[in-house]
Give the backbone structure.
Amino acid sequence: MEAISSQAELDILLKENNLVVLKFYSDSCPPCKMLNGPYNELAEKNNEIKFVSANLNVAQELAKKYSVTSIPAVKIFKNGELVDEVIGYNPDKLKELITKNK
């Protein structure tokens, strides 16, 4: 799983991929750790989608730009635009939104 920490890194991914799924997390967040399994499973089953993560402690400016106030937070970008998000531990909703945006 690729980790990013800046808007510049995200911009490159958005240009190179039709669909980018970005998970904001913290190592000290139990729901974030719970989401790791389902998130990694979705990434393995959807090779055509770029799944990345951003540690809130490192990517503070990126989190601020996308108004991340609660974690885990997953942002879904399609064709360079933010189209959906899932806040909190909700793997079923995440799967639903990824399927919708394929």
In short: Strands lie at 2-3, 19-25, 50-55, 73-78, 81-87.
